[in-house]
Amino acid sequence: MSKHDSTFLDTSTLTPRPSPTVPKPTFSVLGHTIINASPAKVRDALLDLSNYGKWNTFIPSARIKRPAAGQTSTTHMQQGTQFEFRVKMSEKSITSSKELCTFVEPVKVASEGDEKPTTTLRWCFDSSGVPLLGYLLRAEHVNELTDLGDGRTEYVHWESFGGVLATLIKWFSGKGLGQSFRNWAEELKRYVEGQASG
What we know:
- This protein is of the alpha+beta class and 198 residues long.
- It contains 4 helices and 7 strands, in the order E-H-H-E-E-E-E-H-E-E-H.
- Strands 1-7-6-5-4-3-2 form a 7-stranded antiparallel beta sheet.
- Helix 1 (39-47) crosses helix 4 (164-197).
- The longest helix is centred in the last third of the chain and has 34 residues, at 164-197.
- The protein is globular.
- Residues 1-23 are annotated as: Disordered.
């Protein structure tokens, strides 16, 4: 079913998983689930920053900081959108993270006889304006939505961390981040399936 092997999909580990801008990460966190909805519905939920607080306990709020060139939506990210996540690192700690949406594919839909197509969305930690920060920390979040051809979507998402600070983040927050990414996938599943049945 999945384009990834069982080692890659093992959500319990911090195994490094490469991404386009972090090809040799220090560590990665991953979530994986099957959602009873189309890739288009899953994709829309991920792009709609205004509703993150309704379903994502790790990201209680998100907002666009700088629209992409020609962008008219004030709620949905697209390629080139700079946005901010409020991130709940622990019960007592909420921080902000500036992100840049770097890649949004049109939805790919399965047709009879074809391999299961995957639609990809990516964003990365945005260190623009602080060049040294880009050396200290690189992080990229990859979302893959595979149309299973039967009304379901396989959702795999991971974030890869590199740079000098990645080791400290792994040491102090890796386990918690891993749990947050597992939760993210399941919370997205509940939200999208609830929207589809509502």
